[in-house]
Amino acid sequence: MKGGFQIGAAHGLYCLGCCWALMLLLFVGGVMNLWWIAALTIFVLLEKIAPLGAQGGRLSGWLIIAFGLFNLVQNIWH
Q1: If exposure means fewest CB atoms within 10 Å of the residue's CB, which of 34, 36, 58, 59 is most exposed?
Q2: What residue spans of 30-53 are helical by DSSP H?
Q3: Could you read off the pLDDT of 49-65 as tens digits, one per residue?
Q4: CA nearest neighbour of 25 among 53, 45, 44
Q5: Would you call 52 helix, strand, or coil by DSSP?
Q6: Domain positions in the chain
Q7: Taking Cα atoms as reference points, which of 53, 70, 57, 75 lies closest to residue 21?
Q8: Chain-centre distance of CA 53, in angstroms?
C-alpha cells in the first residue's frame, strides 16, 4: 500500500510540474466548461500533430502570450 501511494504521489507531482499551466487555464476558464475544455483539447492536439516540432511549441507559446497581452490591454482600455 505504501509503495503504491509513493508511486502515485510521484506521478501526480510530475504531472503537476509539467502541466501546471494547462491546469491553471482550466481553473480560470471553468473546470466544468465543456467548450473551454474542447478548445484546449483541440489546441493541444493541433500542437502535437503539427510537423513543426519544438519550434511549433515555441510559436504556440508566443501566440498564447500575445493573446494574453491583447486581452490585458483590451480590459485596461474598456
Answers
A1: 34
A2: 34-49
A3: 878 777 777 888 888 88
A4: 44
A5: coil
A6: 1-32, 33-78
A7: 57
A8: 17
